[in-house]
Amino acid sequence: MDTREWALLAFTILGQTAAGLMIVLMIVRAYLAKAGGELADRLTNRPLFLVVPLMALALLASLFHLGSPLNIARAVPNIGYSWLSREVVIAVAFVIFAALYTYMQWRKAGSESLRTAIGWITALLAFAYIYAMSMVYMIVTQPAWNTLATPVTFIVGSLLIGSLGMAAALVMGHAGLKKTETPVVNNVLQGLAISAIVLLGIEFVVLPLYLAYLATQGGAALQSLNMMIGPYGFVFFLRLLTLFVGAGVLAAYLYRNAAVADKEQTLATLAYSAFALALIGEAMGRFIFYATHYRIGL
User: Fold this and answer.
1) Cα(51)–Cα(49) distance, rounded to whole angstroms?
2) Angle 182-217/264-291 helices, nearest 10 degrees?
3) Average of pLDDT values for 50-69?
4) Cα(186)–Cα(181) distance, rounded to whole angstroms?
5) Would the CA dihedral through 110, 33, 45, 160 be positive or negative?
6) Predicted local distance difference test score (pLDDT) of residue 297
7) Backbone dihedral region for residue 222 (phi beyond 0: left; psi -120 to 50: alpha; all else: beta)
8) Quick one: CA dihedral 119, 120, 121, 126, positive or negative?
9) What is the pTM of this model?
């Protein structure tokens, strides 16, 4: 891969992490709010404060691909017919709303209902951003990218990273919980662990279907498949193993241990490890995505 594609890898993974975290954060927040707004604020503000810095890093990485910040402004007039322009515009809108929501949560500005509304708008923008990002790669001349697997894996990967990232953030605040709050938070951890396992299952169903599809298309699609299982076969296998251990095995142990009292240290180890492995696995998947594509024609 060249420098521009490494920049895209950083842009997409950082952006997906920020967006996935924002979406899952709002879902978790809605559940925790039933046990008290103070608890929801205390446990979800920490990961919220990471969303804008992650997106800032993502946009910074994108400059190595776009070449100049002015190209972001130039994307606006093409929003009606270009997914790349939509991606850029939605990404900027996502950052603005995320910054606004973070400030409102930090300063307790506005009413609770207004802050919640801004939070959900931000989460919707996060989802739209991931979708637009994936649609950029639906290019007829790039058969390995131009499949339904691209938007599905971008969205599922984002939610997977977001779920395990949220679990890692929750266990950070575990020590300061009151006795009555611990069962509520542990229920959330179990829900996040199940979500990660289900999302991993979707990835593992889509992947063989995707490979089988490439095998039947011949030409550039078959060349991409041969690269995945040939020169990049070890990275491909390592990616699957990393995802399986992180989002499968460790998530299952996270679910099990969240049901047992006084397991704070074990939960922390499991949540941090699962998140790290899932993030590494998704990054390796994106590396393969960029490294193995073949264009039809010149």
Assistant:
1) 6
2) 20
3) 85
4) 9
5) negative
6) 64
7) alpha
8) positive
9) 0.93
How far apart are the C-alpha atoms of 227 and 221, rounded to whole Å?
Answer: 10
- Give the Cα separation of 23 and 39 in Å (integer): 18
Query: For every residue of 174-187, which 3-state class applies, written as one string?
Result: HHHCCCCCHHHHHH
- Looking up tokens 């950070």 gives 172
86-109 pLDDT, tens digit each: 998 999 999 999 999 999 999 999
Nearest residue to 283 via CA among 234, 239, 240: 239
Q: Please state, in angstroms and rounded to a whole number, the distance separating the CA atoms of residues 70 and 74.
A: 6
What is the rounded distance in angstroms from the CA atom of residue 156 to the CA atom of residue 278? 12
C-alpha to C-alpha distance for 127 and 8, rounded to whole angstroms: 19
Distance between terminal CA atoms of the chain?
A: 18
